[in-house]
């Protein structure tokens, strides 16, 4: 009889592992042969110092098949109870238009794109974000809007920081917050203020004018639902040189007078209810707008219009010189990853509904609210707010009885304590639902039809909007599903994402975002949960988060995780606050020096600055390692005041520093703590661990190492792992208190679990890989990194290598000598890669004039070889320029990227190279061509002529 496979072998054939890992067994062997290593173990031993090799299993278990992991996570989903939520407070039910759900949220063409640093191959999402900015500007009435911030709470904190930067009342250190602002917003702002050394006073909005402030934060409509005219307050504050910041709501603003007309200088809020599910707190895009005069002080990214070399309008990120990666500790903010995918969804929602559709939705919500208000008053219920858009606050005589009726009807009301309750209606509220709600509150019937047209509105005439909004063509052209579908597709086609080719971004780990990992996020049991619902309804989330946290504890070697920060940079901030809290608890709050190596990511110094730590830079030696002598000298010099060091491991230069344990020891000896930036965890998982190495705290970029997609620039999650001594000092929350020691600490995000609804992605990733798969992924990532280093190293200098001449999981290609010899720049190479169908690697970080390549474990050898072929060809092209065969100012490199317009252009014949070489330089491009839709974009022109609104269609005509 022929030998048969066992049943277990036959089932193992369905494993996820070989789907996640790009190179097949044969390809792996070929790569090992190429770099001269016997096997993965042998290679790992060559790369990773023995002293830090993990000596234990992760304890996660065997890899789960996709179907099994989906069944397991479904069990978590089933433990959530989806009640009808009227809680509001910045989170509302919404109908995600199906055409947007399927074609944007569930479409890898949108969710796997990278941040648009290479704008010529990102015009689609740049247009969608520009629409988001236009929407924000129209509704707030302000001149300039950003491309999204992390959530309403952090946007408010950024508003305060902007106010401090621009206010002419330099003497004042006081920021006034109206007590009618959402409690979670006050919490996040107060945390930020405390650590920036600013004072916060919370009081009634009217009291703001009685203080000498640099700024105020009001809310319109406010926490009770009231819609108050704040024009007088704003005028008085401004007369005293204070800045007026206003938190607001996009749907309300469709109906309400623009806050800028009432005197707001900054308007911020959440765009969640524009078609993004509540998701137990996030991810959602926050919007942020201000006056033109404050543009250089804006936090976060702004998309601006410029032109390309053919004079065509072209979009790109504007004024990047304000950002953390350039200005470091002098940056306006530490925000890096934002909420691009969700901003795109919100802008598409506005495009799909258009001004009339939005008006209809807003008017309907308001009418239903007015009918409810009328009905409640008629029943003798005491309404707290006498004006409203969608929210009513009221008092009842028997709170317990009302809670019981609501519970029985599976309805969540907002309970403000004692006998005070609130309800917020939304787009999904129907007449039937309103009747049920009314019966729950009053035990009597609401005559909705009878009251329609009779019930008085809740907004005074002076606060009604009289101007037209969203007049731009884009908001008035795509209202049929066919048109919408094609608009989304047209934009998608302009963008290069992972569904076209590898994006080998060093430090950013663009690995597979598997379909099975993504599927649960749109299940209603995860998508439709309100973050402030009673905790017993969210048992599934709680168990999932606890389980994920347990796994991450094991993977990192820490003792506890804080799952609140919703980006890596937020994690850095949260981690530094934990360190500060720890020092303070020991009577050492004077420790305020943060050592940061030269090569650090810009968010490190920017976060230190936000925590009021003083940055002292530590030098790196010629091999890219932390200069131990300099470290020892600086640690000793600042021993009295040493708070911590922030290091990245393996280093941003792509090597495992042998001295890492010594670095930790030196800092500890001088009383400091070690913060290890977790962006490079893809080279550690299952092999070593930050807690094991000796670090005290790290953030994990779940959107890098743990498979959450980049979304074109967000969402992300940046939970932090901490050693036990730091656990009491991690972020808490004003509204949700699960019973931890840290519950009453200040919050760093608006929601307790940050962007909770994308945590299932990382849970699925870990479950499906298991112990074996996680370690193997790390090892293959290192194999691929070294394979690229070897193959590219034959043509370009590789800047740094570690022991045995190996790199870790990424390598830095040095273009400076070639630039010196030929005049071809790293920018030319990056743009030329587009012609070859690739997104450039990380440019000029951590070393100017270089490219940092990180292939990840998910790319097959075939794809790696395609990339190598492109880079080798480009090297040949550089040679031709160097030899003078092509003029320095007319060659395929400096003219890159090439568009269809170039190829069609009769004058192309005058170029010294062929159309084929320009656009179809390889067989791969002949088989599957990606066309950049604009030529190289002029950044300087765009910044000199800053324009951040929609461009009229006519501007695109030839
Ligand atoms: C990506 C990255 C960060 C910042 O993470 P965000 O999620 O973008 O805020 C910090 N440090 C390093 C080394 C990174 O690569």
TrEMBL record:
SUPFAM superfamilies referenced in this protein's UniProt entry, alphabetically: PLP-dependent transferases
Segments passing through the bilayer: none
One GO CC term on file: cytosol
Broadest EC class assigned to this enzyme: oxidoreductase
Modified residues (N6-(pyridoxal phosphate)lysine): 704
Domain of life: Bacteria
CDD domains, sorted: GDC-P
Gene3D superfamilies for this protein: Aspartate Aminotransferase, domain 1, Type I PLP-dependent aspartate aminotransferase-like (Major domain)
Signal peptide start-end: none
Keyword match Cytoplasm: no
Keywords attached to this entry: Oxidoreductase, Pyridoxal phosphate
GO molecular function: glycine binding; glycine dehydrogenase (decarboxylating) activity; pyridoxal phosphate binding
Domain Glycine dehydrogenase C-terminal as annotated: residue spans: 777-898
Record-level GO BP terms: glycine decarboxylation via glycine cleavage system
Glycine cleavage system P-protein N-terminal domain span: 19-440, 471-735
Enzyme Commission no: 1.4.4.2
InterPro entries reported in the protein's UniProt record: GcvP, GDC-P_C, GDC-P_N, GDC_P, PyrdxlP-dep_Trfase, PyrdxlP-dep_Trfase_major, PyrdxlP-dep_Trfase_small
Catalytically driven reaction(s): N(6)-[(R)-lipoyl]-L-lysyl-[glycine-cleavage complex H protein] + glycine + H(+) = N(6)-[(R)-S(8)-aminomethyldihydrolipoyl]-L-lysyl-[glycine-cleavage complex H protein] + CO2
Record function comment: The glycine cleavage system catalyzes the degradation of glycine. The P protein binds the alpha-amino group of glycine through its pyridoxal phosphate cofactor; CO(2) is released and the remaining methylamine moiety is then transferred to the lipoamide cofactor of the H protein.
Similarity section: Belongs to the GcvP family.
Subunit details: The glycine cleavage system is composed of four proteins: P, T, L and H.
Protein name as it appears in the record: Glycine dehydrogenase (decarboxylating)
Species this chain originates from: Ferrimonas aestuarii
């Amino acid at each position: 009889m022929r030998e048969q496979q066992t049943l277990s072998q036959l089932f193992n054939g369905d494993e996820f592992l070989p789907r996640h890992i790009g190179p097949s067994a044969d390809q792996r062997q070929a790569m090992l042969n190429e770099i001269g290593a016997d096997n993965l173990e042998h290679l790992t031993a060559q790369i990773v110092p023995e002293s830090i090799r993990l000596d234990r299993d992760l304890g996660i278990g065997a890899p789960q098949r996709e179907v099994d992991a989906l069944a397991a996570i479904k069990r978590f989903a089933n433990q959530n109870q989806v009640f009808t939520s009227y809680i509001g407070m910045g989170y509302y039910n919404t109908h995600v238009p199906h055409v947007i759900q399927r074609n944007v949220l569930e479409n890898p063409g949108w969710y796997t794109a990278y941040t648009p640093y290479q704008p010529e191959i990102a015009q689609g999402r740049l247009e969608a974000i520009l629409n988001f900015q236009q929407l924000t500007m129209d509704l707030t009435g302000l001149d300039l809007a950003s491309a999204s911030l992390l959530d309403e709470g952090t946007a408010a904190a950024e508003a305060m920081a902007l106010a401090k930067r621009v206010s002419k009342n330099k003497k004042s250190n006081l920021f006034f917050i109206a007590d009618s602002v959402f409690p979670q917003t006050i919490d996040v702002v107060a945390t930020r203020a405390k650590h920036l050394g600013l004072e916060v006073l919370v009081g009634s909005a009217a009291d703001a004018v009685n203080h000498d402030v640099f700024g105020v934060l009001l809310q319109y409509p406010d926490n009770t639902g009231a819609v108050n005219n704040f024009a007088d307050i704003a005028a008085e504050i401004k007369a005293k040189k204070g800045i007026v910041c206003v938190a607001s709501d996009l749907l309300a603003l469709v109906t309400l007078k623009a806050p800028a007309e009432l005197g707001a200088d900054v308007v911020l809020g959440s765009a969640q209810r524009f078609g993004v599910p509540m998701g137990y707190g996030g991810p959602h895009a926050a919007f942020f707008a201000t006056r033109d005069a404050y543009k250089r002080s804006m936090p976060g990214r702004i998309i601006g219009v410029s032109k390309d070399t053919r004079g065509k309008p072209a979009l790109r990120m504007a004024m990047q010189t304000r950002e953390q990666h350039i200005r470091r500790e002098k940056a306006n903010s530490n925000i890096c990853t934002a909420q691009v995918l969700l901003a795109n969804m919100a802008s598409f929602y506005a495009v799909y509904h258009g001004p009339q559709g939005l008006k209809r939705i807003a008017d309907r919500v308001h009418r239903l609210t007015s009918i409810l208000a009328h009905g409640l008053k008629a029943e003798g219920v005491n309404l707290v707010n006498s004006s409203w858009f969608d929210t009513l606050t009221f008092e009842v005589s028997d709170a317990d009885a009302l809670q019981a009726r609501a519970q029985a009807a599976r309805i969540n009301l907002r309970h403000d304590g004692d006998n005070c309750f609130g309800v917020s209606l939304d787009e999904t509220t129907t007449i039937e639902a309103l009747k049920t709600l009314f019966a729950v509150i009053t035990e009597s019937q609401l005559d909705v039809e009878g009251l329609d047209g009779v019930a008085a509105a809740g907004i005074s005439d002076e606060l009604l909007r009289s101007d037209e909004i969203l007049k731009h063509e884009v908001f008035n052209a795509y209202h049929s599903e066919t048109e919408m579908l094609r608009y989304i597709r047209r934009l998608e086609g302009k963008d290069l994402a992972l569904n076209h080719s590898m994006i080998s971004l060093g430090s950013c780990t663009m690995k597979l975002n598997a379909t099975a990992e993504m599927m649960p996020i749109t299940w209603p049991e995860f998508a439709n949960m309100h973050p402030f619902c009673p905790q017993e309804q969210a048992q599934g989330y709680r168990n999932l988060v606890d389980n994920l946290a347990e796994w991450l504890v094991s993977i990192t070697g820490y003792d506890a995780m804080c799952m609140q920060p919703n980006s890596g940079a937020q994690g850095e901030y949260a981690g530094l606050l934990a360190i500060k809290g720890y020092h303070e608890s020991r009577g050492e709050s004077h420790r305020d020096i943060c050592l940061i190596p030269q090569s650090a990511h810009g968010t490190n110094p920017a976060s230190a600055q936000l925590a009021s730590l003083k940055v002292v830079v530590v030098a790196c030696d010629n091999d890219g390692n932390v200069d131990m002598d300099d470290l020892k000298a600086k640690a000793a010099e600042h021993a009295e005041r040493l708070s911590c060091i922030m290091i990245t491991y393996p280093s941003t230069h792509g090597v495992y520093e042998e001295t890492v344990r010594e670095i930790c020891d030196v800092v500890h000896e001088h009383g400091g703590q070690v913060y290890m930036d977790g962006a490079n965890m893809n080279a550690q998982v299952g092999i070593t661990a930050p807690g094991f190495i000796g670090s005290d705290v790290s953030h994990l970029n779940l959107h890098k190492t743990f498979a959450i997609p980049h979304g074109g620039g967000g969402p992300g999650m940046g939970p932090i792992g901490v050693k036990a001594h730091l656990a009491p000092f991690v972020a808490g929350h004003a509204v949700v208190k699960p019973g931890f020691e840290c519950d009453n600490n200040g919050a760093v995000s608006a929601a307790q679990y940050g962007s909770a609804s994308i945590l299932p992605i990382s849970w699925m990733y870990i479950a499906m890989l298991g112990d074996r798969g996680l370690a193997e992924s790390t090892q293959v990532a290192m194999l691929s990194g070294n394979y690229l280093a070897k193959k590219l190293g034959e043509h370009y200098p590789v800047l740094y290598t570690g022991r045995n001449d190996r790199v870790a999981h990424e390598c830095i290609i040095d273009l400076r000598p070639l630039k010196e010899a030929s005049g071809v720049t790293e920018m030319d190479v990056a743009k030329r890669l587009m012609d070859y169908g690739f997104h450039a690697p990380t440019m000029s970080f951590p070393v100017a004039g270089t490219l940092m390549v990180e292939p990840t474990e998910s790319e097959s050898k075939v794809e790696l070889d395609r990339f190598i072929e492109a880079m080798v060809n480009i090297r040949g092209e550089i040679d031709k320029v160097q030899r003078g065969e092509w003029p320095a100012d007319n060659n395929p490199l400096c003219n890159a990227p090439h568009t269809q317009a170039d190829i069609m252009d009769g004058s192309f014949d005058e170029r010294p190279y062929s159309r084929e070489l320009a656009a179809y330089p390889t067989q791969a491009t002949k088989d599957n061509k990606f066309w950049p839709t604009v030529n190289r974009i002029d950044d300087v022109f765009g910044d000199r002529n800053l324009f951040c609104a929609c461009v009229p269609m006519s501007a695109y005509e030839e």
